[in-house]
Design brief:
By secondary structure, the protein is an all-beta fold. 0% of the residues lie in helices and 50% in strands. Strands 2, 4, 5, 6, 9, 10 and 11 form a seven-stranded mixed beta sheet that branches. Strands 1-3-8-7 form a four-stranded antiparallel beta sheet, with no helix packed on it.
Length: 123
């Protein structure tokens, strides 16, 4: 599975962005999909995850209520809608896939990773 994240950019605080993660090479309809982020000088951080059917989802406390994860299995794509962005959300955002469909918050649970897309939020 190859993952391509896109949709990052620079926005002002309070703004919104929608990230996309397009998969190729194999259908991700049976995979859990996650979003993670890494800010400069910091460790990778879990953001959100969804199971293959979307029945099970989870968010980091820091983004709950502001970020929404969704997926379109027909398009082989997962999305991360980010609203009310703050400078603390500035990071490179990565999407990841887990063929075991565990929807876990641990990055180690995911076998496939995209290349990342930069999100910069200015105050």
């Amino acid at each position: 599975v190859q993952l391509q994240a896109s949709g990052g950019g620079r926005v002002q605080a309070g703004g919104s962005l929608r990230l996309s993660c397009a998969a190729s090479g194999r259908s991700i309809s049976t995979y859990a999909m996650g979003w993670f982020r890494q800010a400069p000088g910091k460790e990778r951080q879990f953001v959100s995850t969804t199971s293959s059917t979307g029945e099970h989802t989870a968010w980091a406390v820091s983004v709950k209520g502001r970020f929404t994860i969704s997926r379109d299995n027909d398009k082989n794509t997962v999305y991360l809608q980010m609203n009310d962005l703050t400078p603390e959300d500035t990071a490179v955002y990565y999407c990841a896939a887990d063929h075991n469909d565990r929807a876990e918050t641990r990055g180690e649970a995911y076998e496939y990773w995209g290349q990342g897309t930069q999100v910069t939020v200015s105050s």
